[in-house]
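Here we describe the complex-level prediction in full. Unlike the single-chain runs in Section 2.1, the two entities below were treated as one system.
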Amino acid sequence: MSIDIEDLAARIAAGERRALARGITLVESTRADHRAAAEALLDRLADPSRMALRVGLSGTPGVGKSSVIEALGLRLTGAGHRVAVLAVDPSSSRSGGSILGDKTRMERLSREARAFIRPSPAAAQLGGVARRTREAMMLCEAAGFDVVIVETVGVGQSETLVSRMTDVFLLLLAPAGGDELQGVKRGIMEIADLVLVNKADGDLAAQALRTRADYAGALRLMRARDTDPEGIPAARTISALTGDGLSEAWAEVERLAAWRRESGVTARRRAAQAGQWFEDELRAGIEALLSSDRALAARLDELRARVEAGHAAPGAAAREALDPLMRALDGAAESP
Amino acid sequence: MSIDIEDLAARIAAGERRALARGITLVESTRADHRAAAEALLDRLADPSRMALRVGLSGTPGVGKSSVIEALGLRLTGAGHRVAVLAVDPSSSRSGGSILGDKTRMERLSREARAFIRPSPAAAQLGGVARRTREAMMLCEAAGFDVVIVETVGVGQSETLVSRMTDVFLLLLAPAGGDELQGVKRGIMEIADLVLVNKADGDLAAQALRTRADYAGALRLMRARDTDPEGIPAARTISALTGDGLSEAWAEVERLAAWRRESGVTARRRAAQAGQWFEDELRAGIEALLSSDRALAARLDELRARVEAGHAAPGAAAREALDPLMRALDGAAESP
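The structure predicted for the assembly as a whole is:
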């Protein structure tokens, strides 16, 4: 495709959903020319004044993530918010996308004019998924979406990744016996700001309350209280089916987000996140550079072969490989 | 310390345990001059003909890792093997080292002339732990140890890391009820070549047998059978206390290792591992390069600040940062 970046940027900034979808397709592409265009687009749209409330939501399959996002999303769009939903599914390259793969799972929300739903791209590496998701998030913000929900399935690394690109992190659980508390990895409990026990309706209502109580205690123990306002992290019961507890849960999210904004936590956190993304991009850029320079690439192949055969140690070989780069830099520094 | 690399290499190659310990201290150091010396040492000692049987062993705390390694190690040294034991404990920076922190936990083995035991270094990053462990392993091999056991505690990422630097991976379990099978992460079951159910003695003997049966079935389902000889992966009961099953378990390890060696699996796997280590070292070297070049470092700081403030997109800023490197390389290519 031939891309008029200026035009695309203007249409995204005007909030056009089709332009936004096209922009996301661009950042998802691995073609070199697309990547350059994507970077130009993102740089043009960089605007610190347009930042959404970024909410991460994690939960194992079957816990009702789609139903909760749909119920919550409809309330938010009904109240005038513009809501974007993105997904991080590191398993999608194998499973073909188990979350958000079918938009009809959020049929009503996807028909809303103020909502935008984008499934997870199939990507081989978690690093690739991270880049695409944060870039898609930036595009959604540039398009004027003021709430971005990033959904992920519970497999450990992806939660950390999502919590590192969002402001508030929610863990969704199903009602369960107390002995199953251990099934949630400690690391995930540590990053959760709010635990929501879904399906608190009908026969499961009482069990949901007990689960909530089990987690409320565990959460408090795991978090340093002084970084958050009174009562956070918290555990709540909700029902995507009846809508019970959703407004209260969202009020809690907003209260926490407001406290973090006012106390400077959000600004510090976003600066640190952006700095980290820069480092990630730098690393990716260097790797691309190493493989694109022909003489360097040939030298690398030769050294790699020696290391693979056990005739050279990896560290010394790497040092030797980087020698021309070092000398090139020295030369560049000495020239006027 | 002033280091005579040639002398140190010679003494390590002669199998001197004190020289080996000193070499490992050198590869664990983060000082730049020590790093250069460590790389020179490793490169000098690189010798594909001196390769040990590398065995990874993982298990949660309390499962009896130290007792099993001691009992197994004493049998192996008694049979003439030279056995080195290393530990990977990613949590040691926080906990102060929960595994192998106290050599007296393997008191008898540590007194053996043909054994060498080295606790996990306190390190902040898993990447750092990986590098030091594989370098320590190379030094042990250069020193003539023909069996290297790398112990790790069960926390997910460290098992993957250890399985990537060893030839055979053992998972150690305690006797447990069948409903606890789910507690072992699927990913760890997938990399285990052999599951050893310890404490198959006294009152727990019957339960150990049931646990073995539970895992035997699960293991077979999870592994592609065609890459291994008949009957592997397998589950066995052992007792570090009585010694029951240890000889049979080790025979299984050797049978698998021999099959992998003869079928070319080991050679392919080690070449791939070495290639990956080279890539890791390359990446670390580039990062060191970027921070050591002053003009480049200043430019990086400036661009990072713009990204952190939200005024530039991470990808475009990284591209800009790498521009001088790219031009330097082009210049170097053009000069005679």
